[in-house]
Amino acid sequence: MELRELIRILLRAYRVIVVTIAICLIPAIAAMFLQTPSYHAATLIYVDVETISTSSIDELSQAVETANARTITFKQLISTPLVLSPVAEGLILGISGEMLASHVTAQSALDTSILEINVTWSDPETAATIANRIATEAISTFALAAGTPSHLKLIQVQPAVAPTAPITPNPPLLLGLAIFGGLLLGSALVLFRQGWTRTIYSVEQIEAATTIPILATARSGESAETDLIAGIIQTAKRFREVHSIALVSAGERPGKSVLSERLSLALGDRYTVVDSPARLGSREALESPDRVDSAVVVVCLGKDTIPGINVVLAQLELLAVPAGGIIVLTQNGSVPLGRFARSPRDDR
Q1: Which of 30, 101, 203, 282 lies in disulfide reach of 79, CB 3.0 to 4.6 Å?
Q2: What pLDDT digit, counting tens, does each position of 268-300 carry?
Q3: 164 lies in a domain?
Q4: 48 and 122 together in one domain
């Protein structure tokens, strides 16, 4: 399937895609209004090892490695009750240190001595207060645990401030994901339906499914196009010995009856045009006393299917009625008539 044909199929079924997007937007909008806002506050702690001016390069390098190693250790200890229990009790949060740990994360960049403490809470002021209190508690706890011989020094270099906007829900993100997901799901449904029903949307599908030549395309009821189709039939070799032609289709299409009437007038007395019923009722017309010599299959783009055409051709074969060609009815004339306004190769 070419990209152009794929786009044409999706555009024809845009209503399915629009409805799918609308359905996906419902839970996204509901989440925007029902989800409790969550605010994020962060503070930074600098972990340093004090050195004296006479320290050698090796001593300075060892001090940096010590600070980095301690930073990694402190990052793991931030979310433990050792630090969070005093904070939860001091701020009277109504939860334990273990429960507070689900709202706190700590991280540090590789090979740095900067420790970042992140807190998420439903209130922006409380989130900033908790983050700053954790930093204060961590500095006092870790300094005592480290001991004076290491000359460890912790400094809160960036206090937490109350955020102005929540991190969740995020309306642009939710709406964007809903629209994107609805677009993908709707397109998948359209393509699945196309593959399941094998509805015909292009003449290329007909050419790939059958060897019966396509005589022309036409908009239903257009007299100028009907005259051109009549000229193609009159000049085609396969219709030179034919006196009676039946128009058959894969379904009840009102456009076929209009085309049959106009084609009968355009062909004149040389040909008798029989407007056969749909494929399931065509046996009665084809076996009538005025037996037809050839049949022309009328296919409506966007409505008929490949299996429907195959049933018609199989029925014609059983009735020993040769199929002389296919006429494609378009809805908007998007397929140019001139492309098929020629005799089949074997008729030249």
Answers
A1: 101
A2: 777 777 766 544 444 555 455 456 788 888 888
A3: no
A4: yes
